Amino acid sequence: MVLSLIACNGEDEAASGGDSGTTVTGPATEPAPQPTQPPEPFRIGVMESLTGPGETYGTVANQAKQLAMDEINASGGINGRMLELVIEDSKCSAQDAITAYRKLTDVDGIKIILGTSCSGAMLGAAPLAEADGVVMFSGLATNPDIAEAGDYIFRTSLNDAQLGIDMGNTMWADGIRTIASIAETTDYAEGVRSASTDRFLELGGTALLEESYPTDVTDFRSQLTKLIAEEPDALLVAAQAEFSGGTIVKQARELGYDGPIYGDVVVAGTTALEVAGDAAVGVKAIITDLDPNNTTATEVVNNFRAKYDYVTLPWYLGSAYDDVYIVAECLKQTDDDQDADGMRDCLYGITWSGAIGENYSFDEKGEVVGLANVVVEVLPVSERTDDNLGYKVLGPAPIL
Description:
There is one protein chain. The protein is α/β, with parallel strands linked by helices. It is built from 11 helices and 17 strands. The protein has helices at residues 55-74, 94-107, 119-132, 160-173, 187-202, 221-229, 242-254, 270-276, 295-308, 314-334, 340-349; strands spanning 2-6, 12-16, 42-48, 83-89, 112-115, 135-138, 153-155, 178-184, 206-213, 234-238, 261-263, 284-287, 352-354, 357-362, 368-369, 374-378, 391-395. Helix 3 (119-132) links the parallel strand 5 and strand 6. Helix 4 packs across helix 5 and helix 7 (242-254) runs parallel beside helix 8. It is elongated. Mean pLDDT is 92; it is low at 1-26.
């Protein structure tokens, strides 16, 4: 006999007796449904100069990548999975880039890295990436040696070998026959000076004197005094940091130099122009610049300014932004953030239209193809606006 009792405290209590072996159980119930877990996000590493001499543009590049990531995730992600950026500060130096690389690869298990901001950082970490089969993809690093860094190394930034040709041609076409130069002792700045001077010498020019300075220097009057004493037709400035680039221009004018000044994109950056003020009027720079007729570029810069309220080196902002979308497009194909070989093969085959240009691609060395520099001239402070970023575009560099 089986009894089912309800105890006074409300709990069911069952007792069995006899030898029938019959068991009474409650009504059958379905297992409670388990909550659905969202798929794991694609995890991509980021190495930018969030501190150090490249802080201004490294921070902007990092923010541009986050802007792109937010847009991608807001539109549903990639194949239904969100995108996650794992960010490390490469500090614009080779040693710090190696530390950041080790953290991303050894601790976080990252196989695809966007960065770095600076050429020295890229040249420091790239050999490790090549040996490990990790993709490194930079929107900002420009030193010519990066072209030989390996099969897993890509960039949307233009090789400074072309910048040197364009700088040398521009100075020569302007009637400059002698130059004196000052450069920061970094791979990027020395690369700019070397490539520019080499081209200038090929055309028949003369380099009267070269001066260099370490990154932590803020007073350049001693070096500038020596350069100006040579009475060059022009000064060539190659800086890594916007602050030093702007300060060199300002102090050169304060010392009485009123001749032409040429430089790369750093001396035309927002912070550099704020430091130099009207001392920078007339400075010519060879830069990559966003096409005002490119609606994607305009939207990216406007959205960026609305969110972060500061823009410098807008082309490189767009370059960092495009890099995220390019990687996202390749992840659609590979569906695996651990497949570095698949990412590499996709990058070799892709043709892209984005903020920095239309229908650009990558050659057999991972170098971007289909983009070009322009020559710009810095405007007076009274004419500088958010739209013109303080300069006017003179056009493409002359071909000689």
